[in-house]
């Protein structure tokens, strides 16, 4: 009898898991991949939308392109999760499984930062990035703040990228000399696991006159004024925020997130419920919330499921490693390889920014489009 596998969420983790299971076990599984959206977006593409490089339509990859043996893809919204029975209810149906993998990602809690939706703009969602792209052409220069509202957020280098790309944008429009850019982050450095990456970013900030404000979060916004976590005030003409992240409401209601996120064994991604795993941003693994880490976690879970279904072999433990490409502006891109779980402390290796690295970043995008969607 074929094993029923439910995959909740079609981000990096869900797509990679579905691909691997289809490649290795298509005759032995009935995998159902459920996502509320009709298309996938690479997270780093939101900055392209924000600064007018691409349109929201051009960055979407439709889930209807997926055609994998043993896998069906459904556009439905998960409304209830029973991890004990491994049962899922959606807005259209109910499903039961032998194995369940939760990859629903993180939602944004704009209400957690009073004023963010009125006095400032978030740029971490496609609609948010699109809204900023509509505001920027009318911005005539002034005080720009890129502010992080909580310590756990997707793609830790993204706020730094935003600051550097904002410098380029204002320079192109002839507004840089009459503007200032400040980056407010809760970290002591831009990328703490990699001192070399942080040093390169801080050097880039210094060269461009960008002020880095470490160790503080944005607590609330008032018209023209950001109130930081130490109660200091910082005036602005344009505020671009990274909103507080939280688990999706359906996860919170499932009793899986007692500590705020789904607790898992960080090396196996197992939850406290047998046969139930969690990968990516929704889980508490001690690694950054970023697509490359979700992809690596999915690879580990795939080996566990394959070994169990085959009755032989063993799981490849999750190393907590990933690659992040970083826009440095002026058409240059850097890269950092980070490993969080394979040693006594996180380590990161920085590859210097260059125009040539853009080719590698595009290859990263294209190989996943081909692997997950069958698109060139």
Q: What structural keywords apply?
A:
FAD/NAD(P)-binding domain; 29% helix; five-stranded parallel beta sheet; alpha/beta; 25 strands; 376 residues
What is the C-alpha radius of gyration, as a whole number of Å? 21 Å
Under CATH at level 1, the class of the largest domain stands as Alpha Beta
What does the average pLDDT come to?
Answer: 96
Q: In whole angstroms, how far apart are the ends?
A: 35 Å
Bulk shape: globular
Individual helix count: 10
Structural class: alpha/beta
**Annotation, overall tally of beta strands:** 25
Poorly predicted segments: none
Percent of residues in beta strands? Answer: 25-35%
Biggest β-sheet strands, sense, barrel: 5 strands, parallel
Spatial strand sequence of the major β-sheet: 5-2-1-9-21
- The CATH homologous superfamily name of the largest domain equals FAD/NAD(P)-binding domain
Give the number of domains: 2
Per the CATH scheme, the topology name of the largest domain is: FAD/NAD(P)-binding domain
Going by CATH, the architecture of the largest domain would be: 3-Layer(bba) Sandwich
Helix content: 25-40%
Task: Explain what you see.
The chain has 376 residues and is an alpha/beta fold. The chain folds into two domains: 3-106 and 247-310, FAD/NAD(P)-binding domain, CATH 3.50.50.60; 110-245, FAD/NAD(P)-binding domain (3-Layer(bba) Sandwich), CATH 3.50.50.60. It is 29% helix and 29% strand. The chain contains ten helices and 25 strands. Strands 5-2-1-9-21 form a five-stranded parallel sheet, covered by helices on one side. A hairpin with a 3-residue loop joins strand 7 (87-90) and strand 8 (94-96). Helix 1 (12-25) runs parallel beside helix 9 (291-310) and helix 6 (158-172) packs parallel to helix 7.
